[in-house]
Amino acid sequence: MIRTCLASAVFATALAGCSMSPPLADGLPATAPRSIELSSTPYFPQEQFQCGPAALATLLVASGVDVTPETLAPEVFIPERKGSLELELIGAARRHGRLPYVLATTADEMVAELEAGRPVLVLQNLGAPWMPIWHYAVLIGYDVERNRAILRSGGKEREEMRWQRFAGTWHRGGRFALTTLRPDVVPAIAEPARFIEAAAGLESAGQRKAAATAYDAAIARWPEEPHAWLGRGNAAYADGERATAADAYLHAIMLAPDDPAPRNNLSELLLDAGCLDESRRQVERAAALAEGTPLESAVADSRAKIEATAATVARCELAGRDWPD
Amino acid sequence: MRIEAFRRACVAVMSVSLISLGMQAPAAASVVGTSEAIAAARGDNPRAVVDAALARADVQAKLAEMGVDQAAILGRLAALSDEEVSTLAGQIEQAPAGGDALAVIGVVFLVLLILELVGVIDIFKKS
After folding, report:
1. Residue numbers in B near A18 (CB within 8 A)
2. Quick one: A88 exposed, middle or buried, by C-beta within 10 A (0-12, 13-18, 19+)?
3. Model confidence at A162, in pLDDT bands (50, 70, 90)?
4. For residue A267, how many C-alpha atoms fall within 13 Å in the half-sphere facing its CB?
5. What is the value of pTM for the model shown?
6. Is the pLDDT score of B2 beyond 50?
7. How far is CA B25 from CA A203, A294, B16, B17, B29, in A?
8. What is the Cα Rg of chain B in Å?
9. A54 by DSSP, 3-state: which?
10. Is A128 in Cβ contact with B121 (below 8 Å)?
11. What pLDDT score was predicted for residue A7?
12. What pLDDT is recorded for position A15?
């Protein structure tokens, strides 16, 4: 009895959730094409539970990377969970030199990506909220007249879904939508902070070349974003290009004078370059700025290191003697 | 229970080794990474180096426990930032794992069928 009640309550909720998705025509920007189908998108039929590797391979191959679901599986699949996690798909995309960019939770960014010729990976919940069946598929198009979403999905090379049904499964999947960009490409509808953070993800993953390219793209598009310059500096510094890195840090400091991060990194760079006095001056300034911020301890580390170097250089073991001219 | 104890031991060993690794490479360690700077500017309280190392060791142990090949785990985690690994550590058991598997069993078939027919769910239509 209780179960029946519960079931009908959830049933009603599920229905309510579903009926909230409007038809495709209502949510589409006026300028968007009436229909798109990226029919040249590759298709990889999925093995059991392997929709993650299959969907990711579809995106990566479409963006010019040579992979297969079989080579991706060891990078993303978790046997006990019988599936793959969003964050691990993101990590794998980075490992293959692509910039994973999570799209907004509304449909317009998906549509804009399709318009730009890039398929979109989506997480669907094919079950109900209380009994999820998680599934990754790739949205390759839509048709407004017929109110359909067009997908590469699981065992189907071309699946058409009524738009509301697709939107419902996507909504229940947490509205996760991902595009994997060549690092020199900025998404069709791009938010600077989100894009720069995505580039920073490449940097964290040790993909220095790809990160540098992405920061360059960010700087070209938003030259006033200090974190893009900081990132460019970090990528250059890691590659040993000190002059380029110094210029980038200076730009970041100019745009965000109160941020301790570029000052700190500049002081490290100056120390490496043998400019001890300048390095100390910068790290003192960074320490003052970092006081009480989450970066306080990081800057304190740099400062301690620089002071230690200064002490070594300044110490003359045989001071106090007269030396010949 | 025993697995849990084993996992904790792994975490302890891994974190000690990771922390000492970090100390051997001070040059790279004191450059503020862009992710870290962004998190700090946002006002997030980025975990200390020790916490990040712990989270990495934790996720590493969990992935091994969940059947992921040992050799692949380090490479997989290396592609994620400290913040992402911390997120993963908190949700690796619950986060949606896309794979078409039925996550919870024990619901009446009829309810499913009705939901399917009404168009709320889409289980039975797959190839």
Report:
1. 119-120
2. buried
3. very high
4. 29
5. 0.81
6. yes
7. 18, 21, 15, 13, 6
8. 20
9. helix
10. yes
11. 33
12. 39
Residue keyed to tokens 């996760």? A176
How many Cβ pairs closer than 8 A exist between chain A and B? 232
Q: How confident is the model at residue B60 (pLDDT cuts 50, 70, 90)?
A: very high
State the Cα–Cα distance between residues B23 and B6, nearest whole angstrom.
26
Query: Is the pLDDT higher at A300 or at B127?
Result: A300
Say if the Cβ atoms of B97 and A134 lie within 8 Å: yes
For position B124, what pLDDT does the model report? Answer: 67
Tokens of B62: 């969990």
Task: Report the alpha-carbon distance of residue A277 to residue A187 in Å, rounded.
Answer: 43
In a domain, A15, yes or no: no
Q: Domain range holding A264?
A: 192-313
B127 falls in which pLDDT band (50, 70, 90)? very low
Do A122 and A210 lie in a common domain? no
Residue A320: left (phi > 0), alpha (psi -120 to 50), or beta? left
Integer Cα distance of A265 and A248 in angstroms: 11
DSSP B54-74: HHHHHHHHHHHHTT--HHHHH
A128: its two tokens: 């109900």
| Percent with pLDDT over 90 in chain A | 76
How many structural domains are present in chain A? 2
Domain residue spans of chain B: 2-97
Please list the residues that pair with A135 across neighbouring strands: A124
Confidence of residue A143 (pLDDT cuts 50, 70, 90): very high
Does A235 reside within a domain? yes
Do the chains contact at A200 and B34, CB–CB below 8 Å? Answer: yes
Residue of B37, B78, B118 lying closest to A261 (CB–CB): B37
Instruction: Say yes or no: A175 and A43 in one domain.
Output: yes
Give the ipTM of the model, two decimals please: 0.82
Asked whether residue A95 is domain-assigned, the answer is yes
* Most B-contacting residue of A44, A204, A219 (CB-CB within 10 A), to test interface: A204
Nearest to B123 among A55, A133, A299 (CB): A133
- Residues A61 and A84 sit within 8 Å (Cβ to Cβ): no
> What are B77-123's pLDDT values in tens digits?
999 988 899 889 888 888 888 887 655 554 556 677 777 777 777 77
Q: Quick one: which H or E segment has residue A178?
A: strand A177-181
* Burial bucket for residue A273 (CB in 10 Å: 0-12, 13-18, 19+): middle
